[in-house]
Amino acid sequence: MIPRYLVDVDLHSIPHVHTDVIVIGAGIAGLFSAIQASESKKVIMITKKSLLDSNTRYAQGGIAAVISDEDLPEYHKQDTLIAGAGLCSPDAVDLLVHEGPNGVNDLIRMGTKFDLEDGVFALTKEGAHSQRRILHAHGDATGAEIVRALSERTKLDPNIELWDDHFVIDLVTDDGECYGALVQKPDGQKVFVRGNATILCSGGAGQLFRYTTNPDIATGDGIAIAYRAGAHIQDVEFIQFHPTALCYPGAPRFLISEAVRGEGAYLRNIKGERFMEKYHPQLELAPRDVVARAIVSEMENTKSTFVYIDITHEKDELIKHRFPTIYEYCLNYGLDLCTDWVPVAPAAHYMMGGVKTDLYGETSVRRLFACGEVTSTGVHGANRLASNSLSEAIVFGRRIIERVMKLPPQDKQPLLKQITKKMSNPKQAVVEKRLKLQKIMLRYVGLKRSGKGLQKGLEELSRQLPFYETHMAKREEYEFANLLTCALLTARAALGREESRGGHYREDFPERDDLHWKKHIVFQRGEDRVEEWILDV
Predict the structure, then answer these.
(1) Which of 45, 285, 350, 358 could form a Cys-Cys staple with 127, CB 3.0–4.6 A?
(2) Which segments constitute the FAD-dependent oxidoreductase 2 FAD-binding domain (predicted)?
């Protein structure tokens, strides 16, 4: 059983800090929400590393929004629903496609500089989009530019207090309401931060897997602390593996953006053959899950650990102008995008599911909100459409602050209980435990799954449950506890869903089954798995 709290603490005996709004995390969701809230509220923004460490910073492709006269919100909605494979919430997608352009204008107002061509936005097209609607910055450094602009605004804002290198251990709740967070400072001291509203913007869980495009900090903290606090967790079996991450000795799994295929790159197996025509009529621009599985099939068939991405047939100027970051990065490893085929393989990239929210970003725990990759808003369904994640964060960030502004002050003190749990000492180093967990997830809960494998994976993960009874004091221990929670939920959901859909593929149930499985799998701590049907629209 996963405990309610990770540590033993008497809340009466530690310092209390009060604020209006607590923002946990510093990607686009956290930065944008904090700036919006700070217009009339005091904000404490808590990051476990620094403002510049988040998944947003690594987002290359761009942000999807209907800007062009040739595009329509209806087209964007249709593309999103098709990619989401029947599990999107049409209402959530409606909000995304209609409110996305206003969100882009907010980003521009906050200092983001998107690329222009002849005085108008330079729009590109990505996989499974029917129109050119992706705004980008510095070619392929969109996320970095957004983080630059928003973090500069945040640092100058007198209403935002930044707490770098602080770790949120747990949310403090009483009777289904969130009162704030138990936080560990860099020196190890604990503090109770009280807020009228708490917004989780802590990102995804790419570190569940041995190979990921996510930074080290993506350990699923928000999903795990929300689960312990009693929030509903939905759709966590749907994990997007990016088809093309650099796969080269000595190099991290660096993202080779979908936009490279959008500009005409081919995929080739190690024999040099293009292969996507065997798998999908849209070839290299098929949905990500299709491309990722096709690559794995080719790797298995040719007994190789990678395939190639080849854009050598395009002009050198286009490649260097459009993909300066990727071009420079590959060059550091002796690979020239203009003349070389670049070795790539799939890597864990994005979690479609997460903390379930309503259309204003509120969770099933009162006064607890969630925004960005940590959530399951219903926008992405079973498979996220490329470049919709940044749009989702700003659209729902705005809506969360609308709701937060209307919250009445909390009228009572929480019943501050002493948090206690059984303690023992771990025998194995956390770094070994983490590596073992990542290998189990890669082997049994990765791109291709089966009932037998998932059962085995769950058994192996369950052997780590005694870790929750150990004394935890360090960040890496809390992170491992959170990863283990996310791993168990993901494996349980994947075992339960006896079909293949979007980012979830079962070799023993290879077909999509709308008759039995057009529904969400939802978890709540202390309850059995719940299934929620989707009404046909």
Answers:
(1) 285
(2) 20-390
